[in-house]
Amino acid sequence: MAVPDSTPNISDAVAHALKVTLRGVDELLPQEEWVRKLARSEATGTPLRIKLGLDPTAPDIHVGHTVVLNKMRQLQDLGHTVIFLIGDFTSTIGDPSGRNSTRPPLTKEQIEANAQTYYRQASLVLDPARTEIRYNSEWSDPLGARGMIQLAAKYTVARMMERDDFNKRFKAGQSISVHEFLYPLMQGYDSVALKSDLELGGTDQKFNLLMGRHLQQEYGQEPQCILTMPLLEGLDGVDKMSKSKNNYIGISEEPNTMFAKVLSISDTLMWRWYTLLSFQTEAQIEALRAEVEAGRNPKDAKVALAKEITARFHGAAAAAAAEQDFINRSRGGVPDQIPELELSGAPLGIALVLKQAGLAASTSEGNRLIDGGGVRVDQSVVSDKGLKLAPGTYVLQVGKRKFARVTLSV
Predict the structure, then answer these.
(1) pLDDT of 321-346, one tens digit each?
(2) Which of 54, 217, 222, 365 could disulfide-pair with 360, CB 3.0 to 4.6 Å?
(3) Domain identity same for 304 and 356
(4) Closest among 210, 207, 216 to 180, alpha carbons compared
(5) What are the residues whose beta carbons fall under 8 Å from the beta carbon of 198, sequence distance 6 or more?
């Protein structure tokens, strides 16, 4: 999203901050209000309060989640206050966004278990020293039944039914539980409690973010601006990144796997990932893109992106090692670090060895892998499911990434 020519006279610092804000975003609403907030912040030296709420619905964060976290870090680096809000209360309701059925709420134990890892993982992107971490149970629990009724009185059912997923479910005759109306109300009330100036979220959160603006006005506060970020396409380049689609990169995945997964994306998708995931400036990205268009191998750019993402979550040394590991694999070599184990009872059938080495879940899966041509012993493809390995040491390989060094004895 480009800065429009109609932007009023503003300082260079505010113009820069606006440009950083708009990088890769889907919408910034209302933009003119955000410019005024930035200008006031510059004039008074008071940082703006920028809020991101995440419900701990799963124990791990994937790279798709970091699109919004990256934007938070960019704004944090401009000197503003970042509030990482863990929705331990709203998780008990269950966010109905984008769903065609009532979402089952999480238990208190599930929420606590997931929340333990959320901030630790988010801190790999955000600067922990400049991040305010909050839990919305702080103000939601004390609200009580009376406060909840008073809050519910500030929004109409007609307005609530304008929400796309509610509207579609109502027209389709699908059930909508009353408690689902409470979710956007409570998320909006978070903005009141935190006095936020800007709230970030994915495009699927727009209704909830606008609720925050409405409720802040109802409570006599200056309304927040809202910023929505696109949903990142996964490895397939089609669907949004999701564990259920198996097209994701978990930020806790080991470095070699993370590096290889980034390299597996298409050359076209790579540039979108650069915009949404890289910390390089837009000018640096455009310069790299111009080099590729002029004839430079796009794989060079993809390797640079893979190293940057891997280094962010595992460090520069691990990223360099992952690059070397990938080079070794592409040349048919064996990585330096692979699991080693010893087995007795040789000769042993190849499928049983694959199972005991942890390269196949069962002997039947081992046989299927052999049928598919995905098994190698000492770099030679195995085609005989009846192969028995005599005493000795062997390097077993399944696919491109799974290895084990097995020593067999009688």
Answers:
(1) 999 888 877 766 677 678 888 999 88
(2) 365
(3) no
(4) 207
(5) 34, 37, 48, 49, 50, 51, 75, 224, 225, 226, 227
Please indicate, yes or no, whether residues 174 and 277 belong to a single structural domain of this protein. no
- Same domain? For 326 and 344 the reply is no
Q: Which residues contact 230 (CB under 8 A, 6 or more apart)?
A: 24, 25, 26, 67, 202, 203, 276
d(CA 3, CA 21): 10
Total domains, the chain: 3
Give per-residue burial for 150-175: e unless 16+ CB within 10 Å, then b.
ebeeebeeeebeebebbeebeeeeee
Assess if residue 247 is contained within a domain.
no
Binding site annotation covers 243?
yes
Q: Could you report the per-residue pLDDT of 29-84, keeping only the tens digit for each? A: 999 999 999 999 999 999 999 999 988 777 678 999 899 999 999 999 999 999 99
Confidence (pTM)? 0.73
CATH number of residue 197's parent domain: 3.40.50.620
Domain that residue 309 falls in: 255-330
Residues 107 and 149 grouped into a single domain: yes
Helices of type H across 50-177? 66-77, 108-122, 137-152, 157-160, 164-171
Task: Provide CB contacts within 8 A for 107, sequence distance 6+.
Answer: none
Residue whose token pair is 């800007």 = 198
